[in-house]
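Internal ticket #5521
Category: modeling
Description: The requester needs a full-assembly model to guide mutagenesis choices. All entity lines are attached below as received. Residue total reported by intake: 169.
Assigned to: D.W.
Attached entities:
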Amino acid sequence: MKDWTFCPRCGDRTRLAGEGEDTHAECPACGFTKYDNPLPTTVGLILDGDRILLLRREHEPRKGSWDTVGGFLAGAETAEENLVREGLEEIGCELRNLRFAGSYSSVYGDTGLKTIGLAFTCELPPDAEIVLSEENSEYAWFPLAERPPLAFADCEAAAAALTSRTGSA
Ligand SMILES: [Zn+2]
């Protein structure tokens, strides 16, 4: 919240109000208020039996780390629409059998931006052929219980919860 020093509506100086989770910036001049809401993202836990599909990030933040398919929601799209769009963009496959698997908070790299990852288990179509975008350098299937650590706290927590639920660990 400390970045919200000036009001984006009228340009006057804002002040911080509230405490803890309720901290927000408000503009005394025009009444504009910026709450500390997280940015919604999707976490696609693509499964094939007890294996999970992971992608290696080609860009910062967390370049070189393993990650799940997913991204930031845009405009009026739903989390399900976003995840299907991200699947088409990142691996060229239409994800199916989406099932909500919980929400997990995180911070995006060192930007300080708080996110809320909406996790779904899902599958590839039977005849799927994975085609990576330039966002990732490689992909691999890992047994859930033997996967590498993931790039962000939300996908890591979502995958860990899934592993403990399925008893694979
Ligand atoms: Zn203002």
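Resolution: model delivered.
Comment from assignee: The beta strands are 15-17, 24-26, 33-35, 39-48, 51-57, 66-67, 96-107, 114-123, 136-143.
Ticket closed.
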